[in-house]
Amino acid sequence: MKNVHFERGTVRNIRVHVLPTDQFKTYAISVYIGSRLQEDTVTPTAFIPFVLRRGTQTYPETKQFRERLDDLYGAGFGFDIYKRGDYQMLQFRMDLIQDDFVNSPESLLEQGIQFIGEAITKPFLEDGHFASKYVESEKLTLQKRIESIVNDKVKYAAERCIEEMCKEEPYRLHPLGTIEALKQLTSAGLYTYYKELLLASPIDIYVVGQTTLAQVLPLVESSFGLQRDTVGSYNTDIGHTAARQVKEIVEELDVNQGKLNMGLRTYTTYADPLYPTMLMYSGVLGGYPHSKLFTNVREKESLAYYASSRLDGHKGILTIQSGIELANYEKAVTIIKEQLAAMVAGDISDTEMQQTKAMITNNLRQLQDSAFELVSFDFNNILSGVERTVPSLIEAVEAVSKSDIQAAANKVKLDTIYFLRDRKEGV
C-alpha cells in the first residue's frame, strides 16, 4: 500500500493541497472553512452555504447556476455542515470529469475551480447584500432540516446526550444552529458576517486528480477573490473536561421505544499516540456486529433493537447508542456497564481482537478508493496538527494488544446517561 503525498502551498492566505494522481476519472475539489463553535455564530455560519448555492454574480438565478453545472458535463456541487471537535466545519465539494476524458476547448478543472471559487466568494447580491428572496426561502429549508432532527428520535437522543454531557462546552451546540436564531437573521446582517467569516477563518482547498500544485495555485489565485490578512489556524489543544459524578437525564416525549444513550470521556484525541488503541477500544466495545454491545445487549439478552458505540476522535468523546423497550431501562444500563467493566478487566477474546482489527483496517484500505475520503483523512491531520498516513494508522492498529486496550479502558470515564422515554408514569 502506497503512502499518499499531497503537494502543498499557500495563495491569498488560503492553504492549497493537491494530490496528483491518475487513479480516478474525475477531479475532486473540496473547500473547508472552519469556525469555532459559538452560540452567536453557529446559526449564521450554518445558513451561509444554503444562500450561496442559490446564485452567483455570473449566474444570479438558481436555474442558471444549475445549468452551468450541466454545461460542465454534469459536474456535482454540494456542501456539508458538521462538527470536528469544538469547530464547526463548512465543506463545499465539487466533482467533474477529468480533462483527458472530454473533448472540451477549455480545461474543465479550470472552469470547476472558477465555479466553486465564485460560488463561495462572489455571491449574487441585491442592494449590497444577499438577495432577500433567497435568504427567506432558504430559511424554510434549514428550518425543516433542523426540525427533522427532532422527528428522528435516534438522532435527537444522540444530540441531547451530547448537549447534556457538554453543557459548559462549545461541543454542546448543534452544527445546524437553532430555529430561533435562524428567524432573527437578516440579509444585510448575514452578508456582513459572511464577509468576516471568509476573511478570518482558516480555508483549505483540496484538489485530487491529474494535475499539480503548480497548475492549481494560479487557478485559485484568480478564482477566489479574497484579500485575507491571515492564513488562520486550528487550536488542537481542546482541553478535556473531567468526568465527575455520572449525570442521569430522563426526558419524556411521545415515543414507543426508549432511546438509551451514554456519553463517555476517553481523554484521547486524534493527535494522541493512543488514538489507534482507542479506535480498537471502541471497535471491540460497540463498533461492529461482533462487538460486545451488539452481542451481549442485543443478541444474548434481547434487550435492544440496536446497540453500538461511536468515537469522536477530535473531541475525545465516545457515545453509546441503544434502542430498548421502556421497561428494560435498568437492566440495559446494568448490562452496558458490565461491558465497560469487561473492557477494564481486559476480558477481550482473540476473536474480538482479530475481527475488530480486520474491520478497522479494511475500512481504512477502502477509503483509499475514494478521492473525497482521502481528502477527509488528510484534513484530519490539518485539524489535529499530526501527520498520519493510512498505512501508518493500519500498522498502529495491527500492533494494538489486549493489555493496550485494557490500559485505555482504565482512562475512559462514564459521564452521562440519557434516556428518552414515553410520557407515561413509571419506567
Q: How does this model look, in words?
A:
Residues 185-358 form the Peptidase M16 C-terminal domain. It comes from Paenibacillus agricola. It holds the Pfam family Peptidase_M16_C. This is Insulinase family protein. The protein is an alpha+beta fold and 427 residues long. The protein has 2 domains: 7-223, Metalloenzyme, LuxS/M16 peptidase-like (Cytochrome Bc1 Complex, Chain A, domain 1, 2-Layer Sandwich), CATH 3.30.830; 247-421, Metalloenzyme, LuxS/M16 peptidase-like (Cytochrome Bc1 Complex, Chain A, domain 1), CATH 3.30.830.10. The protein contains 15 helices and 13 strands. The strands form 3 sheets. A 6-stranded mixed β-sheet has the order 1-2-8-3-5-4, with helices on both faces. The protein has a 5-stranded mixed β-sheet with strand order 9-13-10-12-11, sandwiched between helices. Helix 9 (275-287) packs across helix 14 and helix 12 (350-367) packs antiparallel against helix 14. The chain is globular. The mean pLDDT is 93.
Which overall shape is indicated by the principal axes computed on the Cα atoms? Answer: globular
Mean pLDDT, rounded to whole units?
93
Identify the CATH class of the largest domain. Alpha Beta
What is the distance, rounded to the nearest whole angstrom, between the alpha carbons of the first and last residues? 53 Å
- Beta-strand percentage range: 15-25%
Calculate Rg over CA atoms. Answer: 23 Å
Q: Domain count, please report it.
A: 2
Order of strands side by side in the largest beta sheet? 1-2-8-3-5-4
* Class inferred from helices and paired strands: alpha+beta
Protein name: Insulinase family protein
Domain Peptidase M16 C-terminal: 185-358
Organism: Paenibacillus agricola
